[in-house]
Specification:
This protein is α+β, with helices and mostly antiparallel strands. It has two domains: 4-73, Arc Repressor Mutant, subunit A, CATH 1.10.10.10; 79-259, Beta-Lactamase (2-Layer Sandwich). It contains ten helices and eight strands. The protein has helices spanning 4-19, 26-33, 37-49, 66-78, 80-96, 138-145, 149-155, 173-186, 228-248, 254-259; strands at residues 53-56, 61-64, 99-106, 109-116, 131-133, 189-192, 199-207, 213-222. The strands form two sheets. The chain has a six-stranded antiparallel sheet with strand order 5-4-3-8-7-6. Strands 1-2 form a two-stranded antiparallel ribbon. The protein is elongated and about 65 Å long. The N and C termini lie far apart (43 Å). InterPro entries: GAF-like_dom_sf, HTH_MetabolicPath_Reg, Tscrpt_reg_IclR_C, Tscrpt_reg_IclR_N, WH-like_DNA-bd_sf, WH_DNA-bd_sf.
Length: 264
């Protein structure tokens, strides 16, 4: 495909602009992408014509255009992550006979975007739209374990940043570090009674192409009904589904990233 390299370079320009909080000079774009300036100016001219970038002549810088915003808005409207995840979660429910859900990280909280309920199982507090402290949930711990150490420290700078329910859950950064180290060691996250007494959960993170956690897949079950052997089996199912969802969105293998992670 003769235009494939140019398309890849145009996408690289857009990704670079998206990583910056302010417009960027063309020279910096050329330097960071290791491209000739003439090629960068050609790419910027095409992207400007299509509305994906804007030129700020007074500042001699380039920023994202309205078309890029519209593309991001369309992504939100279509909710592709949820659409891709739903059938996988339905199969997870069939395989485990317990409730499954998908959550995303929102600051220090998790926001639940899907709940697939198993027949005959009671509703949980993890309904769609509910927010819970990330440090108390298996989904939150799975995603936090995949974040860079500096980002975890920024999210939890002091004891005041920690919230507990029912008197359980990490109350300090050192305690959270220990929990995240265990998540990386095991390859999945677990909680028992931190969210709801007598219920436990296991979870695994869904990672994008850069290794960033975009969601957490979890299964919740009555703690007294599921022994250690069964929990391990459920954890394998959850990790497999998270890995498949990561693959479908062009992301990385969850287990491999957690296993090689560093303790924040």
């Amino acid at each position: 495909m003769p235009n494939a390299p140019a398309a890849a370079q145009a996408l690289a320009v857009l990704r670079l602009l998206a990583r910056h909080t302010a417009p960027v000079p063309a020279a910096a774009i050329a330097r960071d992408l290791d491209l000739p300036r003439s090629s960068v100016y050609h790419l910027l001219a095409v992207l400007r014509r299509e509305g994906f970038v804007v030129h700020l002549p007074e500042e001699r810088r380039w920023g994202l255009g309205v078309a890029a915003f519209e593309l991001g808005s369309a992504y939100s409207r279509q909710a592709p992550l949820a659409r891709v995840a739903r059938p996988l979660l339905a199969r997870l429910v069939d395989a485990t006979t317990h409730n499954a859900h998908l959550a995303v990280l929102h600051g220090r909280d998790v926001l639940y975007v899907i709940e697939e309920r198993a027949p005959g199982r009671p509703p949980l507090v993890t309904d769609v739209g509910v927010r819970l402290p990330a440090t108390l949930t298996a989904s939150g711990l799975a995603m936090l374990a995949a974040l860079p150490p500096a980002q975890v420290r920024a999210l939890f700078p002091s004891r005041d940043a920690f919230v507990q329910r029912h008197g359980v859950g990490p109350g300090s950064l050192p305690a959270l570090r220990r929990e995240l180290a265990e998540v990386r060691r095991a390859g999945f996250a677990a909680e028992d009674g931190s969210v709801t007494p007598d219920f436990a959960s296991v979870a695994s993170a869904v990672l994008d192409h850069s290794g960033h956690p975009v969601a957490g897949v979890a299964v919740t079950f009555p703690a007294a009904e599921v022994d250690g052997h069964e929990r391990a089996a459920i954890a394998r199912q959850v990790t497999r589904v998270a890995g498949e969802l990561s693959r479908r969105i062009g992301g990385r293998s969850t287990a491999g990233t957690l296993a090689s992670g560093t303790v924040p």
